[in-house]
Design goal:
Order of helices and strands of chain B: EEEEEEEEEEE
Helix content of chain B: under 10%
Shape of chain B: globular
Largest interface: A-B, 24 and 22 residues
Number of helices of chain A: 0
Radius of gyration of chain A: 13 Å
Oligomer: heterodimer
Structural class of chain B: mainly beta
Number of strands of chain B: 11
Distance between the termini of chain A: 40 Å
């Protein structure tokens, strides 16, 4: 059973702080990793894609991938109340044609 | 961009009704489309994977005769919930991807309520 694991949270951070979201995956052949944000009652929205070891930055978001440890994370700098949502981590399968999603981490940014 | 349009956004109907949900990739050709279901406060559950011109692949426990999927073109997939019952009430979301190893882009979802 290929799995993507996330702490369900909620993760509570004060406004302006760095939020750190973590994800582990079990399938060593996964090559592509994605972070999605899902607001309550809405569909997921793609935030970041990462394919290589290391860091990838996009605005306030930084994705980090460590394939040796099978670990991917998302850092959100200068967290805002509008960042409060559930963040889903996803990893592709061997053929690259399907994603396995984690259960999501609920982030709460308090003003 | 990668825009996926899904409609209707909300359906309320009587038990026994069949409901069709459309998913369109507006600005790209989707090699694969996916159908998910999400119950309140739960994670996404993949129902089926659909490739244009071929039969959908259903996940274990999903009844293919209950949830009919048609993928007639590279930009359109439909999900029909046949003879829907209250337990089918859920949030149904489609997604589409350009090619393997690329992200899935989601539609806005369809909230289905069966009375």
């Amino acid at each position: 059973q290929k799995e993507v694991e996330q702490n369900s949270g909620p993760l509570s951070v004060p406004e302006g702080a760095i939020a750190s979201l973590n994800c582990t995956y079990s399938d060593r052949v996964s090559q592509s990793f994605f972070w999605y944000r899902q607001y309550s009652g809405k569909s997921p929205e793609l935030i970041m894609s990462i394919y290589s070891n290391g860091d990838k930055e996009d605005g306030r978001f930084t994705a980090q991938l460590n394939k040796a440890s099978q670990y991917v994370s998302l850092l959100i700098r200068d967290s805002q109340p509008s960042d409060s949502a559930t963040y889903l981590c996803a990893a592709d399968n061997n053929a690259g044609n399907m994603l396995t999603f984690g259960g999501g981490t609920r982030l709460m940014v308090k003003p | 961009g990668a825009v996926v349009s899904q409609h209707p956004s909300w359906v309320i109907c009587k038990s026994g009704t069949s409901v069709k949900i459309e998913c369109r990739s507006l600005d790209f050709q989707a090699t694969t489309m996916f159908w998910y279901r999400q119950f309140p406060k739960q994670s996404l559950m993949l129902m089926a994977t659909s490739n244009e011109g071929s039969k959908a692949t259903y996940e274990q426990g999903v009844e293919k005769d209950k949830f009919l999927i048609n993928h007639a073109s590279l930009t359109l997939s439909t999900l029909t919930v046949t003879s829907a019952h209250p337990e089918d009430s859920s949030f149904y979301i489609c997604s589409a991807t350009r090619q393997n190893n690329q992200p899935q882009h989601f539609g806005d979802g369809t909230r289905l309520s069966i009375l």
